[in-house]
Amino acid sequence: MPTKITRIYRPTPTNLRRLAARLAGGGLVAVPSETVYGLAADALNPNACKAIFTAKGRPANDPLIVHIAHLRQLAELATDFPPEAKALANAFWPGPLTLVLRKTAAVPDIVTSGLPSVAVRMPAHPLFRKLIQLSGRPLAAPSANPFGYISPTTALHVKNGLSGHIAAILDGGPCPVGVESTIIDLRNPAKPVLLRPGGIPVEALASTLGRPVKVLQSRLHESTRAEAPGMLWKHYSPRTPLVLHEKIPASIWQSLPSGEVVLLQKKPAANLLTSIKAAGACLSWLSESGDTEEVAKNLFDALQRLDREAWTRIHAELAPTKKGLGPAINDRLIRAAAKS
Predict the structure, then answer these.
(1) CB contact set of 78 (below 8 Å; sequence gap of 6+)
(2) Domains in the chain, start-ordered, CATH in brackets?
């Protein structure tokens, strides 16, 4: 049962010190990042990390990402840092990239779901990095939402989802990337594997490494132990039924039932928009131009808004491109629409 009074804190120096002390003392704080808001706890404190799972209703088979502020912290978490990891870190850290490496004994099993590996990221958001530095702890932080629901990209999203379950949210404004980090498995550095598409395109990783990156296609049932966060079959899901389309067919516009809404990747051309409105169809779009970075930034916010508006069904258009952030956008939409 929810028992806590949930407060949103402005990012003043006093509040940052107060929230860092909460983290150092084993408490939870919802924090902004460039990807989505995370629910942070001391990554080396198993009781603090257990509280993350309890607050979110997260299953124990879904591991957490550990966040660091500088490379010196990595030695406490990973047994090795191969040249491939160094190349990616030099290119994309701080930023929305998570590296899966072999873990040290200092990392609690609850963080890694009992796996011999740990997922590590250096976030770019200055407030998140400041909290890591002030607390003196690496911070485990999955998305700050009820497990399986749409990820939060504003402090208000967090409060709407976890009010009464956590006490503190640091407001850092809207998240500029809007989808979670890319996760790459480097436990076998010679054969890198993309476990989750995200804020860094896979082609950028391959270019930096000078070799192809295998893309893992499988999505896991909730009862299966995941190799990294965000790999379960059904995830990021609104409560409203979500139906996906490669391209929204004209029949949808012409006979859209009352109570259903269409979510487009880009704003329709003026003549099409006129005909759609004439047909009485309700619609929303993620970008004026269809730019995948803008679409990704707005995706979860739009799903949160449409879900609150209590439509009976959302028809969503998939990203038309397999480059840039297109795969990350479609990954989130496919998981959001998956049946239990």
Answers:
(1) 101, 102, 103, 104, 118, 120
(2) 7-215 (3.90.870.10), 242-337 (3.40.50)
What are the angstrom distances between the C-alpha of 233 and each of 152, 240, 336?
19, 17, 9
Cβ atoms of 37 and 156 within 8 Å: the answer is no
Q: b/e for 98-136, b at 16 or more Cβ within 10 A? A: bbbbbbeeebbebbbbebebbbbbbbbbebbbbbbebbe
4: buried, middle or exposed (CB in 10 Å: 19+, 13-18, 0-12)?
A: middle
Q: Using alpha carbons only, how large is the chain's radius of gyration in Å? A: 20
How high is the pLDDT of residue 330? 96
pLDDT tens for 226-248 read 667 767 777 899 999 999 999 88
Q: For the chain, what is the total number of helices (H) and then of strands (E)?
A: 11, 15
Cβ 175 vs Cβ 13: under 8 Å? no
**Percent of the chain scoring above 90 in pLDDT:** 83
The amino acid present at 121, given as its one-letter code, is: R
Q: What is the pLDDT of residue 277?
A: 77
DSSP 3-state assignment of 9?
strand
Could you read off the pLDDT of 32-70 as tens digits, one per residue? 999 999 999 999 999 999 999 999 999 999 999 999 999
Beta-ladder partners of 119: 65, 100
Q: What's the pLDDT at 1?
A: 58
